[in-house]
Specification:
By secondary structure, the protein is of the alpha/beta class. About 35% of the residues lie in helices and about 25% in strands. Helix 4 crosses helix 9 and helix 5 packs antiparallel against helix 6. The protein binds zinc ion and fe (iii) ion (FE). Zinc ion (ZN) binds next to loops.
């Protein structure tokens, strides 16, 4: 039985994700931007929180952790590399660690770039990956701490997951990201089709922070930094993939 996943809108554009294993009742939240919306969903579904998974140290992802731990006694998991600037961890994680979770498990992937200690959680059986501010819908996080090379390497690791993996990201920045994607990759037929779908989703107020990896690989300009036609279009035939990524990221910063 796959895990149940519920996206919980928090603050202005953040998402927390509730994960529930129906077989064992184990229930986790990925990131805690705020406490009240998470309690609301737990109460509605009748679940008891057992675990908190932290992706990175930014306040809009950990702000509610201390309070939620106080309320629920949940076990806290986060990156060993950032233990000094995260709420107290019960388990400090490094790349490749396996977290048993009910009848499934998560694998920890190091995805530095947005911050140095950013990690993603991949649940292979259910085909879910929680990428927060590394890989985002039609975009990627800003490089506050890491280098373009680091972020490109992180995105390449995520691109190696199965195409049907559902990417669950930390924010809904789809509007701005879609405008940038159209600006830099206007001739991409998959992107055109997707932008039309995004208009429909927006009109129906559907949340847009969750998307299959295969669709991202076809349409997210940052994941297409290795595509020869895109380098050519931007006059960068001689660039390496990570140089092209750096170019796209710097364009987005001032878009
Ligand atoms: Zn962040
Ligand atoms: Fe964030």
């Amino acid at each position: 039985m796959p895990l149940e996943m519920t996206a919980i809108p928090c603050l202005s554009d953040n998402y927390a994700y509730l994960l529930h294993d129906p077989a064992t009742g184990r229930t986790a939240v990925v990131d805690v931007p705020d406490v009240a919306p998470i309690h609301d969903v737990l109460d509605t579904l009748g679940y008891k929180l057992t675990d908190i998974f932290i992706t990175h140290h930014h306040e809009d992802h950990i702000g509610g952790v201390p309070r939620l731990v106080e309320d629920t006694g949940a076990t806290v998991w986060g990156a060993a590399a950032d233990a000094h600037r995260l709420p107290p961890l019960d388990h400090a994680l490094v790349e490749g660690d396996r977290v048993d979770f009910g009848s499934e498990h998560a694998l920890v992937i190091d995805v530095p770039g947005h911050t140095i200690g950013h990690i993603a959680f991949h649940f292979p059986e259910s085909g879910l990956a929680f990428t927060a501010d590394s890989l985002m819908v039609l975009g990627c996080g800003r490089l506050f701490e890491g280098t373009p090379d680091q972020m490109w390497a992180s995105l390449c690791k995520l691109m190696a997951l199965p195409d049907d993996t559902l990417i669950c990201s930390g924010h809904d920045y789809t509007g701005g990201n879609a405008a940038f994607a159209q600006h830099v990759d206007p001739d991409n037929p998959d992107l055109k089709a997707r932008l039309a779908q995004i208009e429909v989703d927006r009109a129906n107020k559907r949340p847009m922070a969750v998307v299959p990896l295969g669709l991202e690989k076809a349409t997210n300009p940052f994941l297409r930094a290795g595509a020869p036609y895109l380098k050519h279009k931007h006059g960068r035939d001689g660039s390496s993939d990570s140089e092209m990524f750096a170019f796209l990221r710097s364009q987005k910063d001032t878009f």
